[in-house]
Amino acid sequence: MKEKCCPQDFCPSGLKPEQAARIVEGLNIYLANLNILYIKLHNFHWNVIGTGFFPLHEKTQELYEAIAEELDEVAERIRALGCFPLASMRDYLAIGTICELPGEEYPSPFVAKVIIEDFCTMLSLVRRIDSIVKETPDQCTAGLLADAMCFFEKQMWMMDAYLTRC
User: Fold this and answer.
1) Burial of residue 57 (number of CB atoms within 10 Å: 0-12, 13-18, 19+)
2) Overall average pLDDT of the 15-23 stretch
3) What does pTM read for this prediction?
4) What is the pLDDT of residue 34?
5) Following DSSP, what letter does each residue of 89-138 receive, concatenated?
6) Is 50 a residue whose pLDDT tops 50?
7) Whether 60 contacts 45, CB under 8 Å
8) Predicted confidence band of residue 14 (pLDDT cuts 50, 70, 90)
9) Residue 114 to residue 81: CA distance in whole angstroms
10) Cβ distance 141 to 77 under 8 Å?
């Protein structure tokens, strides 16, 4: 799905329309993955089982709340670039790279491992978008992506540390 971006010759961000379009393409993929991840973290929150239930039940809530804030920031950044964010599950599932899981019981070590894998996928995606942004004067998107990289790296480290006790 190709969204119309920056219909004028000058985008609000000062980017050329083709620069904004490339950045938005990446941000929409990121937004799709954030939304899939948001649902997946709820699934884990409700369905984690085992000795790690209590810490992972709390942690997954913390994570989906953080992801909710990030997806709002990303969608608003897309709007600030003069474009429209994707806004349907159909669109998210069509371009997202994070896989859904059915609603069923999940042992706590499995949950932690999947979170690490998904956050690794997110980190790789954010770094790819960041390499596109670095070719432009878009400091706002660069800051958003830098914060995201720090978040995903920290959470991966924490989940890995959690797994050492499982």
Assistant:
1) middle
2) 93
3) 0.93
4) 98
5) HHHHHHH--SPP--SS-EEHHHHHHHHHHHHHHHHHHHHHHHHHHTTTT-
6) yes
7) yes
8) confident
9) 33
10) yes
Percent of the chain with pLDDT over 90: 88
- Residue 139: HSE in the Cβ half-sphere, 13 Å Cα cutoff: 0
pLDDT at 12: 63
Among 13, 52, 69, smallest CA distance to 44 is for 52
Please spell the DSSP secondary structure of 1-56, one letter per residue: -PPP---SSS-TTS--HHHHHHHHHHHHHHHHHHHHHHHHHHHHHHHEESTTHHHH
**Residue ranges per domain, the chain?**
17-163
Q: Does position 11 have pLDDT exceeding 70, yes or no?
A: no
Residue 57 phi, psi dihedral angles, 5° rounding: -60, -45
- In the numeric block, which tokens belong to residue 36? 């899939």
Q: Per CATH, is 17-163 categorized as 1.20.1260.10?
A: yes
CA dihedral 104, 107, 113, 114 (to 10 degrees): 10
Q: How many Å is the maximal CA-CA distance in the chain?
A: 58
